[in-house]
Amino acid sequence: MGRWEPDARGRMVTAALDLFAERGFDATTAGDIAARAGVTERTFFRHFSDKREVLFDGSSTMQDLVIASVDGAAPGVQPIDVVVSAFASTAEFFDGRAEFAIRRSAVIAASGSLRERELRKLDDLAAAIAEHLVARGIDGAAASLIAEIGVGIFTVAFAQWVSDGATRSLGAYVTAGLSELKAQMACADGHLAT
User: Fold this and answer.
1) Separation CA 23–CA 35 (nearest Å)
2) Residue 123 pLDDT more than 50?
3) Are 11 and 39 within 8 A, CB to CB?
4) Domain membership of residue 36 as a residue range
5) For the segment 32-87, what is each residue's pLDDT rounded down to a tens digit?
6) Residues 30, 51: contact at Cβ < 8 Å?
7) Where are the beta strands (DSSP E) in the chain?
8) What is the largest CA-CA distance in the chain?
9) Which of 21-25, 45-49, 189-193 comes out lowest in average pLDDT?
10) Are 176 and 104 members of one domain?
11) Which among 34, 143, 150, 155 could disulfide-bond with 133, CB atoms 3.0 to 4.6 Å apart, if both were Cys?
């Protein structure tokens, strides 16, 4: 494949996912990805700072979507509803990248260092959400708790969405997660609903 062919970035993402699945993340180099995609290693590094960024490239876009939704929520909406709605608003982003998300999840699940990086990214996201909740007038400790709960709901919903092959919108899983949490909390006798 010549370097002049279009969509070098897309070819590199596909090549990386293929190689990570075939060889494992640790055994794959940026040079391997570039060669498989038909580009130079220099071209690879013009698009990605390292091979991990092929997998985490959309993190800032996701965070921007979530934060914009939190900031744009109407006054008076319960903070947990604001946060979960913000995560549900990312569904179009993820639904359009379902194949990538499924393949990415498998690569991350197979690597301890990638799972750790994923957790750090989610921690950063929770901190950003909490900061924006505080700007909406929520107490700092409560904002942190709500942000962490929202991230937890999203994480479980995302895992279910991937496990189900992304056949429905991610947003449906996110809103169902909040409904389940509220149902469990509403049990009058303090026992978990079944």
Assistant:
1) 15
2) yes
3) yes
4) 8-54
5) 999 999 999 999 999 999 999 999 988 999 999 999 999 999 999 999 999 999 99
6) yes
7) none
8) 67
9) 189-193
10) yes
11) 143
Q: Is residue 47 part of a domain?
A: yes
Q: Is the pLDDT of residue 190 over 90?
A: no
Could you give the CA distance from residue 65 to residue 160 in angstroms, rounded to a whole number?
21
Helix (H) or strand (E) holding 154: helix 140-163
82 vs 74: CA distance, rounded Å: 8
Same domain, 72 and 166: yes
How far apart CA 50 and CA 4 sit, in angstroms, is: 22
Q: Are residues 92 and 42 in the same domain?
A: no
Domain count within the chain? 2
- Residue 132 structure tokens: 């924006």
Q: What CATH number is associated with residue 147?
A: 1.10.357.10
In sequence order, the 6+-apart residues with CB closer than 8 A to the CB of 153 are 84, 87, 174, 177, 178, 181
Where residue 145 falls among pLDDT bands split at 50, 70, 90? very high
Cβ distance 149 to 80 under 8 Å?
A: yes
Domain membership of residue 190 (yes or no) is no
Task: State mean pLDDT over 112-141.
Answer: 97
Give the predicted TM-score (pTM) of the model: 0.89
